[in-house]
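Subject: Sanity check before I submit

Could someone independently write out the structure tokens for this chain? I want to compare against mine line by line before I put it in a report. The sequence has 157 residues.
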Amino acid sequence: MILVSACLAGILCKYNGTYNNVPEIIQLVDRGLAIPVCPEVLGGGSVPREPNEIVGGDGYAVLDGKARVMTPSGVDCTGLFVRGAEKVLEIAEKNNVRVAVLKERSPSCGSSLIYDGTFSGRKIRGCGVTAAILRKAGIEVCSEENFSDQPGKIRKA
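---
Independent answer below. Compare away.
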């Protein structure tokens, strides 16, 4: 079983109330091979909601208490992001998940790139809070941009 970001599976949960459809991921969910999750909604976030970025590091730094997840208006949403990541990890553990396909650049789900915390559109290397907690638990994390490079891992999951 694999986890996928719910927005990639056509679920209207993205911060602006839309989604990021990826037909192959929708097919995985439809075939019962993937579980869609939205850490931000699981953590208590509404749809729509203000955008968020990690300020002062990446998801690992957030989990270590060294960075915060903030909105452009200055609201600290760190607790929501950590709660959501913990709930996703619980779902992963209950379902013996070994691979997650998550939305790149998201402060929750980004696997290799996130926004830099300035709300300027600049990206930095790093991962989101959920990607970090899953990796710490030994779950492989990739994005919608590179998951098709690993078809064997996706099929075996």
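---
OP: Matches mine. For the report I'm noting this point. The first strand starts at residue 2 and ends at 5.
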